[in-house]
Amino acid sequence: MNKLAHKDVLRADQFSKSEIALIVEIAREYEQALAAGRVLEVMKGQVLSTLFYEPSTRTRLSFEAAMLRLGGAVISVAEAKSSSAAKGESLYDTMKTVEGYADVIVLRHPQIGAAAEAAAATYRPVLNAGDGAGQHPTQSLLDYYTIEKERGTVKGLTVTLAGDLKHGRTVHSLAELLSSYDVRFVFASPAALRMPVDIVTRLKARGVSITETESLADAIRTSDVLYMTRIQRERFEDPAEYDRLKDAYVLTRSMLAGAQDGLTVMHPLPRVNEIAIDVDDYAGAAYFRQAANGLAIRMALLALVTGRA
Ligand code: NCD
Question: Is the CB of 106 within 6 Å of ligand 1?
Fold first, then answer.
């Protein structure tokens, strides 16, 4: 039985390095199998339920494609408005119901801690596909996989996380996940959107090098990887504050003139204004490759947590 069998995936910092290596190894295997045109039946007879109480394109479609590519089936609640949550059903009751129908559950929810709460309600493995401004661990695994594929290794790299570091669950998870490796961080954000102090304190206590700056241009000059993020409009209480900050960082092609050779530009997507279209044909613009990498990583995760890999 693999180490992740029957485990939930709730936070990026739950993984040991050997677990991350295992996930990447299985992802690579599946990716090669798909590229070779092989039909996989690892999840045959299994059912995945995706419960998304917030919008999603990549995360939901890649999880569902992953299950289908492994020969499994999918039942889906795309938006809370079409499920009983709209009638006031508790997350607990929803999970007790869904566990009767599905072998594994993927949940996206607007509340921090919702995935942990869901996991506590059911004996089925729960994968956190984003809990509010909390965590997005499966995204960080595909981000890690992308950096390895683009750069050979994450070790020794300077990684800039830029944009809405306060509300961005992708950067919360990625900072935690990469902190086990030999990376230097630059956190670039407007003052109002800094990385939460508890995360910065935890990483510094582990001896991780962190530079905080408001200057995206300064960050670009020293980076090997530039991870841009969207200002998370849905997390703002005051729309005027969102309007003030929404265009804080817009990466354009001309700004990359100051970059080191081979800079890798990433973004979890969706982008709004953060990366101009003229960056898309920059050799290091990896964000659509990054999105594609979600498929293999999520195939690996589904097979591992159900004990099929
Ligand atoms: C992110 C999310 O939902 O947190 N998207 C994703 O899963 N790729 C990023 C975002 O919405 O800004």
Answer: no
